[in-house]
Amino acid sequence: MKNGKGQLTGEHFLLGDHACAEGAILAGCRFFAGYPITPATEIAERMSVRLPQSDGVYVQMEDELASMNAILGGSWAGVKSMTATSGPGFSLMMENLGLGIMLETPCVLVNVQRGGPSTGLPTLVGQQDMMQARWGSHGDYEIIALSPTSPQDLFDLTIRAFNLSEKYRTPVLVMTDAEVGHMTEKVVIPPVEEIEIIDRPQVHKGDVEPDHFRVYRDSVNGGNGYISPMVSAGEGYRIHVTGLTHDERGYPAMNAQANEWNVRRIIDKIQAHKDDIIEVEEQNLKDAEVVVVSYGISARTSLWPIQMARDEGIRVGYLRLITVWPFPEERIRSLAKKVKGIVVPEINMGQMIREVERCVAGQTQVLGVHRPGGDVLEPDQVLNAIRKAAGRSKRAKKKGKE
Amino acid sequence: MTKQSNGTMLRSERARILGYEPLDEGDWVTGLHPMDDLLRGERLPHIWCQGCGLGTALTTFIGALQWLEKNQDWDLDKVSAVSGIGCTGRIAGYVRLDSFHTTHGRAIPFATGLKLANPELKVVVLSGDGDIAGIGGNHFIHAARRNLDITVVCVNNFNYGMTGGQVGPTTPHEARAVTAQYGNFEYPFNLPYLAAASGASFVARWTVLHARQLEWTLRRALAHPGFSFVEVIAPCSTAYARWNREGRGLDEQNLGRRGLETMKYYQQVGRTVTDAHPKDVDIKFNAKGEITEIIEGEFLDEAKPDLKAAMDQRDEHAEKIWLAEKDAVDNRTEIPARKDHIQRAEVKLGGFGGQGIISAGRIIGVAAAIYDKLEACFTQSYGPEARGGAAGSQVVISSDPIHHPHPVEPTSMIILSQGAYTKYVPSLAPGGVLVIDDSLVELPDDHRTDIDTYGIPATKIAEEAGTSKAANTVMLGFWTAIVGVVSREAMRQAVAESVPAKTIELNLKVFDIGFEHGEKIKT
Ligand code: SF4
């Protein structure tokens, strides 16, 4: 993989999906496997044009099962790999997202969420896959998921997704949506040398005595804290990896003890690094009586009603989850003790609000602002919830101007 | 040899054979078998049943690799074995190669990623008939269609062995299985034909008792550039051979014996027909589902460009396009940023497909965001709104961050069709500005009086200038002059970078006509 070739810099008026593709290429992604699906198709389209310009490979697979598997193969070949999809394809990818987690494979999966369930609303926005992102594949695991609010943010977070996936050797989800994916805004791309790019810790031919090499043992390979350096296919270590419960050699181990070792490993490596992984954006939390906790497009659109409420004299704070998974439990817990209420706007019938409620544990009221897919939340819906949380009964005024 | 009761060697015994103390309990090879180099001795004994054909399938595969290493300088460090799930899927766990035991049916797409991301690797998929032709059937035909340079070895034992002998996509009609106890009512695939019809460039079949021929074929299949497919017919002594007792006495109880007898039977009904057409190689069976003929041999060996070679041919063209695009961005003309504060302005554009409604909206966005250095959020209408040939797009422009991406109450509208007029104009803000192509839009009697309406015969002007396609550019010039949210210079730059190179001059000309027309009307 040659870096630098075909990388875009400067200011561009970019579609969100295209910004995602550019972020991936800058992060070093040189393999993309995907399947057309609205509203994620433009990521594949852009990759199909841009990867051949950057010494990368684009392939359209026969379905999303194959796409997800192909990027795992690409990653084990030593190449940063990505796929992108939306609801129905996301469901198909769940099977091998699990394999990726089990094999500890760095890769990035972008879900440009649309309205569901089933075929749902292919062209219109939804944030209805947030719990699927957390629990969609069978078994116990931890996942990292990021949620952007604009094409610029989608660009930045795609790079961050690659960095986290490489660092923690795990698939990372970018949970964007049709609104952000299909909007076009200015994206500023700094020169590549100004961007932090993290590459997986790696063992190459000759670094470790092959007989002593253990795919999943960090102490032998010189790793630290649950993360073993990765070895690519073709390096002479003759590794074996499997989706079965396995031991540190990667060999199947069919017993409860091995499962505990295996499952704890993939959970603990994320849990132990929560501070590094979790990112939130905060505004006006110090004096807040009400806090809006949101993510993605709903966080962005909430900024307007928040401004309106502040104009009415309500001290509203803003907590945006940049990292949605793992969930910033402690942050929410400590907020809950201090505020009159928390408002959670999201374009679904109530998903992340469950996490908020779990952490709040009855210490303050939690008000959801929900709608199923199809459109962003109306400013008035959020404004009214803020008023209610603050204990103001004033009815919504006529629609204001931002 | 000193053995523990579970059949594995004592640690001390292993250490004696190895000459060193193993790092782990299981970390050893016996050093006693010519294939040890390529077997994970520490994983033996394997899980396969006595009399199963998989052992032979594995050894012929290893034999072929050893031959290639010796005679064709293959570096076996560069060979990856990928398996799915099932009895055959366990092969990946026993070969001392880079080996990937993936999910059920997905070995081929995993292999596709490995191979495409690192074409230096030799990638082999070894899996069963259920894995490759059942749950993974779609991946199989598509990899063959792409002529991806991998080898797929499919061990066909006519049923799902691992799960106890269920009927599968290769079970002969009327044969028995644990889920087809009254006889299989379905018909099996002819796998070589399926592979060939899908685009594979090397196709062969042998039973495991034709071990020599199988090994020779595997050498050729592995070395073949392009998608090679080898079907290996193997007895499943535990499951299939229990339900289907072809050629054997009904009293056969010994598992190893049962496997061996079945293997012999398959060999006996085997008929080598090199160069048989794949369509003629169905496995024949009688009315009871007993196999009566297995045609074997190499059926296809064709030279055609493999997937990666076909991809690489396009690189030069891609590079050229890239350099041109990069050039355009690098040589962009900077204009001074706007100093005045722009309040949130919401522009809605409407017309029908082909009028350039989407590109016109985008041009406004480029002008505002890139040249005037404002915030701009451009979206287009998807879904139901865009049906029936209608086209809509919208831009929100502001000096401040744009939180709400859509127009809530548009402050201006650019309308190029009667349909768009009817649909959008009611939502224009009171006091808002409506610009229409009055060669296409007729104002009704009840036209809103609380808005400012400006008309220009944009399509006519564009036609006169050479093409009606540029009507949207006329409208942009007109709108720019009247609304003034975006500067004329920014718009001219945005038009120039957005339209096809050959039409830049024409578009700028009609933009200026529109602009001047607007200036005149305004004053
Ligand atoms: S179940 Fe059949 S295919 Fe599987 S190991 Fe036993 S004999 Fe072989």
Detail the poorly predicted runs of chain A.
398-402
Per DSSP E runs of 2 or more residues, the count of β-strands of chain B stands at 15
Assign the structural class of chain A, choosing from mainly alpha, mainly beta, alpha/beta, alpha+beta, or little secondary structure.
alpha/beta
Overall mean confidence score, pLDDT of chain A = 93
Number of strands of chain A: 16
Tally of domains of chain B: 2
What percentage of the residues of chain B does DSSP assign to strands (E)? 15-25%
CATH fold-type name of the largest domain in chain A? Rossmann fold
Distance between the termini of chain A: 46 Å
User: Percent of residues of chain A in helical segments?
Assistant: 25-40%
Polypeptide structure, described:
With 402 residues, chain A is an alpha/beta fold. Chain A is 37% helix and 20% strand. Chain A is built from 14 helices and 16 strands. Chain A has helices spanning 16-27, 41-50, 64-76, 87-103, 130-135, 151-168, 178-181, 218-221, 256-271, 274-277, 296-311, 329-336, 352-360, 379-390, and strands spanning 10-15, 31-34, 57-60, 81-85, 107-115, 121-125, 144-146, 171-177, 184-189, 240-242, 280-283, 290-294, 316-321, 323-325, 341-346, 365-370. In chain A, the strands form three sheets. In chain A, strands 2, 3, 4, 5, 6, 7, 8 and 14 form an eight-stranded mixed β-sheet that branches. In chain A, strands 11-13-12-15-16 form a five-stranded mixed β-sheet, sandwiched between helices. Chain A has a two-stranded antiparallel ribbon with strand order 1-9. In chain A, α4 links the parallel β4 and β5. In chain A, α1 (16-27) runs parallel beside α6, α3 runs parallel beside α4 and α12 crosses α13. Residues 398-402 of chain A have low confidence and may be disordered. Chain B is an alpha/beta fold. Chain B folds into two domains: 46-307, Thiamin diphosphate (ThDP)-binding fold, Pyr/PP domains (Rossmann fold, 3-Layer(aba) Sandwich), CATH 3.40.50; 340-522, Pyruvate-ferredoxin Oxidoreductase, domain 3. In chain B, strands 1, 2, 3, 4, 5, 6, 7, 8 and 9 form a nine-stranded mixed β-sheet that branches. In chain B, α13 packs across α17 and α15 (458-465) packs across α16 (471-483). The interface between A and B is large, with 82 and 76 residues. β10 of chain A pairs parallel with β2 of chain B.
